[in-house]
Amino acid sequence: MLFIEVGDHDMNNPIDKHAWGANEYPLSASVTTAVAYRTAFANHICNCLAEATGIPPETQTLVLTAVMEAVSNGAIHGNLELGSNSCNDDLETTLASFKAYCQTIEERLDNQCLASRRVDLTARWDDDLIEVSVRNQGRGYDTKTTTKGASPLGISGRGLEIIKAVARSVEFGQGGRRITMTFSR
Fold first, then answer.
1. Closest among 13, 43, 42 to 26, alpha carbons compared
2. Count of CB atoms within 10 A of residue 4's CB?
3. Where is pLDDT greater, at 45 or 94?
4. Which domains does the chain have, with CATH numbers?
5. DSSP string covering the chain, please?
6. Position 98 confidence tier, pLDDT thresholds 50, 70, 90
């Protein structure tokens, strides 16, 4: 099930980031883990965001890259509780590891308790910035521990570094269950 809400937002009235309230998100979406993993949810959301904000294609590409990573991380590592280190990055076994990794994802998606957990996305913007937050219902993780230095040929472990490379800023909250990314317009 997909829920998207695009609210009224006056682009002529810039928002003071520190004054943004909990209910002042012009774009909100919530999907199950299964939908987040098996559909083009991130693409659809980014298209809605681009239409609402009028961002140029270059910025849309950066936002899409980060949102795809954040949604994927929230679904796989958060809600399905599959760690980045759960696959073997040995180059000789990469194909076998990838198959096993995909099989584990499918097995966890068969678990209705895990598959029905939500991935929530909210976005807000002003004349200068776009802020996107992605939240999952997993156990969270220690945000001070990252996978920096992950094998470039490995199956997993590069998502946060990609997000940090394309976003203006990245913040973590709720014990690692929420990532908030900002982008220059």
1. 13
2. 14
3. 45
4. 2-184 (3.30.565.10)
5. -EEEEE----TTSPPPGGG--TT--SEEEEEEHHHHHHS-HHHHHHHHHHHHH---HHHHHHHHHHHHHHHHHIIIIIIS---GGGS---GGGHHHHHHHHHHHHHHHHTSHHHHT-EEEEEEEE-SSEEEEEEEE-S----TT---TT--TTSSSS-HHHHHHHHSSEEEEEGGGTEEEEEEE-
6. confident
